[in-house]
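Now for my pick.
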Amino acid sequence: MQTRLLRVLAEGEFYRVGGQAPVRVDVRVIAATHQDLDARVRNGQFREDLFHRLNVIRIELPPLRARREDVPDLLGHYLRGAAQELGVDPKVLTAEATERLVAWNWPGNVRELVNLCRRLTVLAPGTEIHAADLPAEVRGASGVAAPIDWAAGLVQWAELRPADARPWLDEALPEFERALLRVALQKSRGHRQEAARLLGWGRNTLTRKLRELGLDEGGG
């Protein structure tokens, strides 16, 4: 499949199954993934030439749990959309319900939020959605998100590595640094001096790491 897609992107044509004449295409391709394609290219799981064909304009969208300030606006938007879809009056969230939803980690990202808005529109009684109307797991969320046990996840990752895998630190350390770099740059809104401070690095170290990890897209 990757080979066929690469041919279309590179040559602007394809052959129908059983066809003899090429079919010309003039398309723009928008691709989305939750996979780390940089890592998959390094591991031989994704074609590097196809990656570079697709990686023209790259937009990285953090998961919903990393942009909690967007949650209230998204909830309002999709609650109105669900009400219109179902032909009912839109419901509104109380302050407590909104607080619980902002604190929730949203493992299913925006799709989970959309489905929850539909569910609440159907099941919540009255015109207001209270904390008691939320799913049990969300009701338990406090104003402070539970810390993510990344160390336990790292242990699980190491335990599952095959015996013939690349040296663990060669594979894990660049991904660890790349992830922290991305978050630091997001929190600092791209200001490198502030990102370096968050990471505990000097400005020169941050610049070097950006280059080594393939994240240097310019900027100051």
